[in-house]
Amino acid sequence: MSWLLSLVLRLASSGLVERTLAYLERRAASETDRAALRTQVEIEAIRAAVAETREMTAFNGAKLEHAAFWIFAALFVLPLGLWWGAVCLDSVFRFGWRVATVPILEAWGGQMIQWLFYVGGGVAALRSLR
To answer: What is the pTM of this model?
Structure first.
């Protein structure tokens, strides 16, 4: 996952987007009014998406540097890890703990684990770019 994010960030910063936009602008110059307008809308949509991606990258990079963010994340991830560990240990070794099912953790657990690995992969990708 981190190599994919790193690849996308490198492509976005390599000038590929600028070359694509330049090509679209050249194509718009040779098209009819309606087609040129459609191409211009595509160009602006691409520019907006790139600007949003850069802004979110800066925001996410800044928030990952604050301890408060990690403390807040730990409030959700650590209880999930404790519950999941108890379920696994009880299931494998049959301790008879009768670990309660927690529907909210079952529903959100997979999403939290995905988020945790996504953030970890994102941090690794950002560090590889430095």
So the answer is: 0.45
- How many CB atoms sit inside 10 A of residue 5's CB? 19
Q: What's the CA gap between 78 and 82, in Å, rounded?
A: 6
Q: Give the C-alpha separation, 73 to 69, whole Å.
A: 6
Classify residue 17 as exposed, middle or buried by CB count within 10 Å of its CB (0-12, 13-18, 19+).
middle
What are the pLDDT tens digits along the chain (130 aa)? Answer: 445 555 566 666 667 777 887 888 888 888 888 888 888 888 888 888 888 877 877 777 777 778 888 888 888 888 888 888 898 898 889 888 888 887 877 778 878 777 777 766 666 666 666 6
